[in-house]
Specification:
By secondary structure, this protein is of the alpha/beta class. Helices cover 34% and strands 21% of the residues. The longest helix has 14 residues.
């Protein structure tokens, strides 16, 4: 089994959650694969580029089953990839997934800022991995609105962990997403978008879900 961690928007493969999960998976002899979606640069990021990069890395991982762990926008990516790479992806774990991303009112910015983004061609966004603002092309917006994670098939066994105090992803939309899919187990946690306080609980459930417990 190969496990991939898909980081969120303006984050990186060195995020707190990635490091936490990598350490625990290593105890089972597994190396967490963490693609860096900032490569080659943040400015030219698109969902299509992320999907293509993930597809290449899954191909290079060998013939065995793949588990995708996606956080926030990485959760959106995991949902979309679960259909595109259905023959390879065995199961999915979603952490505060942006299931409504790119739908009206649920993108990174309100409509008036999106219009400014369109006019200017680029906008600065604070990038947590670099601890500074970085420019992002409007092509990111144009590309992402062509994808619909909320209505994607997601055929694999899936676990979702969602904070009730999340200010970035409305837990009601995640509930709605999970409700129509009998293969999805949703855990609502008393936590915020980062889910940092819930990582021990998440790992306990995930360990069993991945078949790593005795």
């Amino acid at each position: 089994m190969t496990v991939f961690y898909l980081h969120g928007f303006a984050s990186s493969a060195q995020s707190t959650k990635a490091a936490y999960l990598a350490e625990r998976l290593s105890g089972h002899g597994l190396t967490l694969q963490c693609p860096d979606f900032n490569d080659p640069d943040f400015r030219s990021l698109t969902m299509t580029r992320m999907l293509e990069q993930l597809g290449r890395e899954v191909d290079m991982s060998g013939p065995g089953p793949v588990t995708l762990i996606g956080s926030s926008l990485g959760g959106t990516l995991a949902i979309l990839a679960s259909t595109r790479l259905a023959a390879r992806v065995d199961r999915v774990v979603l952490l505060a997934p942006a299931v409504m991303f790119a739908k009206p009112g649920h993108h990174l910015l309100p409509p008036e800022r999106v219009e400014e983004w369109r006019r200017r061609g680029v906008l600065p966004f604070f990038h947590y991995a670099y601890n500074e603002e970085r420019l992002l092309d409007f092509a990111f917006y144009e590309d992402t609105v062509g994808y619909d994670a909320f209505n994607a098939m997601l055929p694999q066994p899936t676990m979702i962990f969602q904070g009730l105090r999340d200010q970035s992803v409305d837990y009601h939309t995640v509930e709605q997403f999970a409700r129509s899919r009998p293969n999805v187990t949703l855990s609502l946690l008393d936590d915020d978008h980062q889910l940092a306080a819930s990582l021990p609980r998440i790992w306990t459930d995930m360990e069993a879900f991945l078949g790593l417990t005795a």
